[in-house]
């Protein structure tokens, strides 16, 4: 079904429950291509997409993220951001990527001023493409929070992260585990995000 761009934007929501089925290659390719087509500062196009479909590797990442968060302590400074992750990890039931069969990790150069902005553009493009293709997706921040953690950094380098690269965000992707198999597309009213018109 074809939907126009504004409708795809208005109906995009996070999916956090997925069917175990692997995403069809043709759909995954379109999501990745949407990420690769995102704008970037000075058209640098230096986002690096690590597309992880190997379930054993995903399980290892889940285990590492949980064990690294579990070593941390909640402080007044980190509570609002990673406090929840630390608390759940200490309990031993923290699955940061939910049960999605695919995790798309997006990295960029650490010493580049637009790293977060360029990755964010790619992530949003992929979230919108997922909605257009009836897939479920969710922005996943945990690997960014741990992007200076030596254990995670070493494992991601084994998987293909290059020298000088850091992770600035990820997307969990899969078929939504909903009664109709479609992502939630309720159009909700938006609070916040103030607009000031001048003139
Ligand atoms: C920068 C950023 C980081 C986010 N990190 C996470 C995350 O780590 N885990 C998660 O479940 N959702 C994450 N989200 C998704 C938001 O919670 C979600 O987009 C928001 O609550 C609005 O809900 P909706 O996407 O369903 O419209 C993140 C979104 C953004 C933009």
How would you describe this structure to a colleague?
With 199 residues, this protein is of the alpha+beta class. The chain has a domain of 116 residues: 3-Layer(aba) Sandwich (NADH Oxidase). It has seven helices and four strands. A four-stranded antiparallel sheet has the order 1-2-4-3. Helix 2 packs antiparallel against helix 5 and helix 3 packs across helix 4. The protein starts with a helix and ends in a 25-residue tail after the last strand. The structure holds flavin mononucleotide. Flavin mononucleotide binds next to strand 3.
Q: What is the succession of H and E elements?
A: HHEHHEHEHHE
Distance between the termini: 39 Å
CATH class of the domain at 16-57 and 93-101 and 110-174: Alpha Beta
Unreliably modeled segments: none
CATH superfamily of the domain at 16-57 and 93-101 and 110-174: NADH Oxidase
Count of DSSP helices?
Answer: 7
Blueprint of the fold:
Blueprint lengths: L4 H6 L14 H12 L11 E5 L2 H16 L8 H13 L10 E8 L5 H18 L3 E5 L1 H4 L4 H10 L5 E10 L25
Helix pairs in contact: 2-5, 3-4
């Amino acid at each position: 079904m074809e939907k126009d761009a504004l409708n795809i934007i208005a109906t995009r929501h996070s999916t956090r429950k997925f069917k175990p089925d692997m995403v069809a290659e043709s759909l995954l390719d379109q999501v990745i291509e949407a990420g690769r087509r995102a704008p970037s500062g000075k058209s640098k196009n230096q986002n690096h997409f690590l597309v992880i479909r190997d379930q054993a590797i995903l399980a290892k990442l889940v285990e590492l993220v949980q064990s690294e968060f579990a070593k941390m302590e909640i402080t007044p400074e980190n509570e609002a951001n990673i406090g929840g992750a630390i608390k759940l990890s200490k309990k031993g039931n923290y699955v940061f990527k939910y049960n999605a069969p695919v995790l798309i990790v997006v990295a960029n150069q650490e010493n580049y001023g637009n790293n977060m902005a360029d990755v964010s553009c790619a992530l949003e493009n992929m979230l919108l493409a997922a909605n257009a293709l009836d897939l479920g997706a969710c922005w996943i921040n945990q690997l960014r929070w741990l992007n200076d953690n030596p254990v995670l950094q070493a494992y991601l380098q084994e998987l293909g992260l290059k020298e000088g690269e850091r992770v600035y965000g990820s997307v969990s992707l899969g078929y939504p585990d909903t009664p109709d198999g479609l992502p939630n597309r309720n159009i909700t009213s938006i609070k916040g995000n103030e607009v000031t018109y001048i003139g």
